[in-house]
Design a protein that fits this description.
The protein is mostly beta strands. The chain has no helices and five strands. It is globular, with a radius of gyration of 11 Å.
Length: about 70
């Protein structure tokens, strides 16, 4: 979900405890705050750090809880 509350599907290309790289056809802007949802549970707040050629990289604003 982007800063305007718009929901859309993205493909996560790379994921770590600190951040992610994704692919999307939707417009994202560097500096934009978003919320990533995996399909279950609440979204994870994040900030888009860069955007290039249909891909974007971001960092989580809180450390995500990882499944054990």
């Amino acid at each position: 979900m982007d800063a305007h509350g718009t929901k859309f599907v993205v493909t996560i290309i790379d994921l770590s405890a600190d951040g992610f790289r994704l692919r999307t056809r939707e417009r994202l802007d560097a500096g934009e705050q978003v919320s990533l949802h995996s399909g279950k549970g609440e979204g994870q707040p994040a900030r888009i750090m860069w955007v290039r050629d249909g891909e974007a990289g971001g960092m989580f604003l809180q450390t995500p809880e990882l499944p054990r």
